[in-house]
Amino acid sequence: MQDITRALVELMDIAPAGDDHFQGQSEDLGFPNLFGGHVLGQALMASSRTIEGRMPHSMHAYFLRPGNARAPVDYEVQRVRDGGTFSVRRVIARQDGKEILTGSVSFQVEEDGFDHQMDMPDAPAPETLKSEQELNQQLLEKVPEKFHDQLTRDRPIEIRPVDPVNPMAPEIKPPGKQSWFRAQGELPDDRILHRCLLAYASDFAFLGTSLNPHGVTFMTPNMQSASLDHAIWFHRDLRMDDWLLYDKDSPSAFGGRGFNRGNIYSRDGVLVASTAQEALIRRRKPNKQ
Fold first, then answer.
1. Whole-prediction pTM
2. Is 150 a catalytic residue?
3. What distance in Å separates the CA atoms of residue 95 and residue 113, rounded to the nearest whole number?
4. Catalytic pick from 227, 250, 266, 274?
5. What distance in Å separates the CA atoms of residue 40 and residue 60, rounded to the nearest whole number?
6. CB 3.0–4.6 Å: which of 48, 71, 151, 245 could bond 265 by disulfide?
7. SUPFAM superfamilies attached here (predicted)?
8. Is 49 exposed, middle or buried, given 0-12, 13-18 or 19+ CB atoms closer than 10 A?
9. How far does the chain reach from its first CA to its final CA, in angstroms?
10. Has 78 been annotated as catalytic?
11. What gap in Å lies between CA 75 and CA 29, rounded to an integer?
């Protein structure tokens, strides 16, 4: 396991703080605020620490405030219900006493049942694609210096976009995106950890799907974008240290909000998870001189 991936695994190992409270450390990825996927992953881990014998199958969360990447996050888990098959946990993430995320996680006793899935769409093999880091290196001379740290910082998740967008000169494209991703290095055989890391990774480059039809990116002047909520459904077991295909589309954008959906497949075509997210995508009017 690479050091950067080991550090991410350690970040998911949140510390108990008594009475279903936990504390997680933050990570600075070069973004203006704490990465939303970071809070999702830790919130899912906190909820999972309050239950045994059941696996998380869905998580629904709202991002309430920007997080501080240089301050710890406190998690409060509330035991809403434990039924014969399903359990529900409410989780609240706070920094400096203020809520930055609230969500619910549902767990289920594993059982046999009907089984079907949509086929994995066609996509080029990940070995034929360049990683985001390689693509970003080619852009540095044209990108404002304030974005250099964000674009070049090493990350524990390797992402290889299928049809990369040039953030400095975006073209109008259909409302769909694909990318392969995986953790950089072998991970422990911990099923909960793999789902928490998938929640973490599922927030990377998701809202950009709704920007495709408009020919803008987060670097476009006067562009404001942020995740408003995030939902993830875990259909089947997965491994985050093997390639996963993230197939995304955006059915709608209206009123300053973009709606995004995603299906995540293992390399052999198994649908392991689905996601949905609404995001703020606002083009602010420039200030008059």
1. 0.94
2. no
3. 41
4. 227
5. 9
6. 245
7. Thioesterase/thiol ester dehydrase-isomerase
8. middle
9. 53
10. no
11. 21
SS3 237: coil
Burial class of residue 133 in the structure, from the number of CB atoms within 10 Å of its CB (0-12 exposed, 13-18 middle, 19+ buried): middle
Task: Return the sign of the alpha-carbon dihedral for residues 44, 121, 119, 184.
Answer: negative
Per-residue pLDDT of the chain (289 residues; tens, 9 = 90+): 678 899 999 999 999 999 999 999 999 888 889 999 999 999 999 999 999 999 999 999 999 999 999 999 999 999 999 999 999 999 999 999 999 999 999 999 999 999 999 999 999 999 999 999 888 887 777 777 767 666 777 789 999 999 999 888 899 999 999 999 999 999 999 999 999 999 999 999 999 999 999 999 988 889 999 999 999 999 999 999 999 999 999 999 999 999 999 999 999 999 999 999 999 999 988 765 5
Choice among 48, 87, 203, 266 that is catalytic: 203
- Amino acid identity, position 141: E
Q: Percent helix, strand, coil in the chain (nearest 5)?
A: 20, 35, 45
DSSP state of 140: G
Handedness of CA 60, 65, 66, 71 (dihedral sign): negative
Q: In the numeric block, which tokens belong to residue 272?
A: 């392991």
**Any idea what DSSP says for residue 33?**
S
> Cβ-count burial of 99 within 10 angstroms (0-12 exposed, 13-18 middle, 19+ buried)?
middle
Q: Has 277 been annotated as catalytic?
A: yes
